[in-house]
Amino acid sequence: MLGQRLLPVGVLGGLSLLGGMIEASILALMANIAATMVLRGRAVVIDIGPLNLHMALRTALMAALAMTALRTALQLAIAWLPAHIAANVQAELRNELFDAFARASWSVKSLDKEGHFQELMTNQINQAVGAVMNVAAVISAGAMFLALVASAISLSAIAAAVVLASAIALFAAFRPLDRAGRNAARESSQAYIDQAGGISESVRLAEEAEVFGVTSAYRSRMAKLVAAARNASFHANLTLRIVSGVYQSAIYFIIVGGITGIYFAHAGNLASLGAVVLILVRASSYGQQLQGANHAIIQVMPYLDRLFGSIDRYRASAPNPEGSRLPEVQTIAFRRVSFSYRAGQPVLHDITFEVRGGETVGIIGPTGAGKSTLSQLLLRLREPDTGTYLLNGQAARAFATNDWHRKVAYVSQEPRLFTGSVADNIRFFREIEQADIERAARLAYIHDEIQKMPAGYATVIGQQADAVSGGQRQRICLARALAGQPRILVLDEATNALDLASEAAVQASLAGLRGSMTVFIIAHRLSLLRICDRVLVIEGGHVSAFGSLDELARTDHFYRRVASLVDTHTPPGSAEALTETLSPQ
Ligand SMILES: Nc1ncnc2c1ncn2[C@@H]1O[C@H](COP(=O)(O)OP(=O)(O)O)[C@@H](O)[C@H]1O
Ligand SMILES: [Mg+2]
Fold first, then answer.
1. Selection from 498, 427, 480 nearest residue 458 by Cα
2. Which candidate, 558, 544, 488, places its Cα nearest to that of 351?
3. Which of 111, 112, 341, 376 should be mutated for ligand 1, with most atoms under 8 A from CB?
4. What gap in Å lies between CA 471 and CA 441, rounded to an integer?
5. 44-48: long-range contacts (C-beta < 8 A, 24 or more apart)?
6. Which residues line ligand 1 (CB under 6 A)?
């Protein structure tokens, strides 16, 4: 992070060293001027190491003024540099983290708790950037401290040595506090993550919390997380304050010790004694800054660990972008594929099937059977644990992920919009002509409704504010999937929020696409299955049947049971029969 910034960091150190030397000179000059004035002398005598100057009082005053002006200019540069570096590091860290996240595989991203990534991107990065400011503070305070102590040594070696040795001893004495600070920071980093998770969840549950009349329990759940974050942040801040407060007091003992040293050595005149005391007081304040910044860096480490740990975790999961381009689909096959989210608890086992390019395949089965998991494997959002996924007889893994994802489209069980125009939501960050967007919207049976919106395709919609109805959202997302003219289309219960008329229209569109792309339709409704060439039945993570509807009607007990539910409860062919779900209640 700072490694690539050796030049500005070096410049900062150099400027600070210079600033410290100038400050020491100003202080020595001031002490001498004061002593000269007290003793009613006319000339100021400066005797620092090899430097031995005589100058008129007036000249000395002018020199002090000039040096102060120079120091002010230096101070501006010293203030600009860390602010500049910190702002850049903050933006770079955000881009790096987001880049790693965006490239990471869904199987890793989906493990993150709600609100986790938002917290990393905002608060945890802000905390981590504090490290940059503090490294800059260590460099500049350290340089000033060294410059002042060096000047003090040339004035009174004994006093300065006492102060330096005591400062080092004090540094060592603070080690246990450093450890406590690091632990407190680790706790507060975790507490902030938990708090962010609670905030996101609370926002999502706000409607239900009100409807169920549980706002007081809802508030106290949040209050607990806030209290935990408060306690952790209190401990972290307390160690930080103790370090700087105790150091400040201790330093006076040290200065008194230094003066006592001078006393016993019977050394020094009034002017140099004054200069030494002035310089040491300033040096000690830089020492305090140094100690404080050092401790603050220690307290930032847990945030940096978490941040870089997350970046590494995301990076390690990034799918290999290398591979061949996706050809025309001839066959798609699973050979003995098994998959589990948690070790030892397989959700899909021994799945084997083969479909032809251009086929429309229905996937049915009870809730929790593994249909959505299967769709994620088809999309290559997740990899099989064992077995192989083949396309045209070649391992699907061999195809470049970028090209794959451009040509394999999907409507998820919970389609999501972002805040933007309808056209942008359909285009979804790809380069797609307006004509193709409208063609896809027609296929998804949403074009007429979009045209009736206040600004047509330019109407701004979103997931929450500016929301559209659930059925409209599903059809906009279907248009999104169709707009890229995919070769493979996976629909996971993509029409379950549609009314009968819309569903019939979408069904007709999908029937029209038959042969032009390979379509997998996970459906609960009988009506959609009528346009499928074959239907795959998944039960308990197994393929229990795969055949045409007629075959299933003869042989498959799951299909027959559900079809009989439809038959017994409603007259065949009625509107209700169409909406009856295939899922057993
Ligand atoms: N992200 C996940 N992590 C852990 N288990 C999951 C996850 N998603 C689904 N499951 C589990 O996998 C099983 C199959 O789920 P799913 O594929 O969603 O079924 P379906 O779509 O057929 O209803 C269920 O037992 C479910 O609890
Ligand atoms: Mg599902």
1. 427
2. 544
3. 341
4. 13
5. 45/271, 47/272, 48/151, 48/154, 48/155
6. 110, 341, 347, 365, 367-373
Which residue, judged by its Cα, is nearest atom 3 of ligand 1? 341
Ligand nearest to the CA of 377: 1
Asked whether the beta carbons of 383 and 397 are under 8 A apart, the reply is: yes
- Single out the residue of 238, 248, 250 nearest to residue 177, CA to CA: 238
Give the per-residue pLDDT at 32. Answer: 83
Give the range among 90-99, 156-165, 374-383, 436-445 with minimum mean pLDDT. Answer: 156-165
In this prediction, residue 576 carries a pLDDT of 43
Q: Over the range 328-337, which residues count as b (16 or more CB within 10 Å of their CB) and which as e?
A: ebeebbbbeb
- pTM of the full predicted structure? 0.85
Quick count: other Cβ atoms within 10 Å of Cβ 309? Answer: 10
Residue-averaged pLDDT of the chain: 87
Closest to 522 measured CA to CA, from 318, 369, 336, 323: 369
**What is the structure's pLDDT at 585?**
35
pLDDT at position 582: 43
Determine the atom of ligand 1 nearest the C-alpha atom of 371. 22
Specify whether the CB–CB gap between 121 and 94 falls below 8 A.
Answer: yes
When pLDDT is cut at 50, 70 and 90, the band that residue 52 belongs to is: confident
What would the mean pLDDT of 519-546 be, rounded to a whole number? 91
Rounded to whole angstroms, the Cα distance separating 390 from 113 reads: 32
pLDDT band, very low/low/confident/very high, at 321 (cuts 50, 70, 90) = confident
10 Å Cβ neighbour count for 58? 10
pLDDT (average), residues 33-51: 76
**Domains identified in the chain and CATH numbers:** 3-317 (1.20.1560.10), 331-579 (3.40.50.300)
Exposure string for 8-42, b = 16+ CB within 10 A, e = fewer: bbeebbebbbbbbbbbbbbbbbbbbbbbbeeeeee
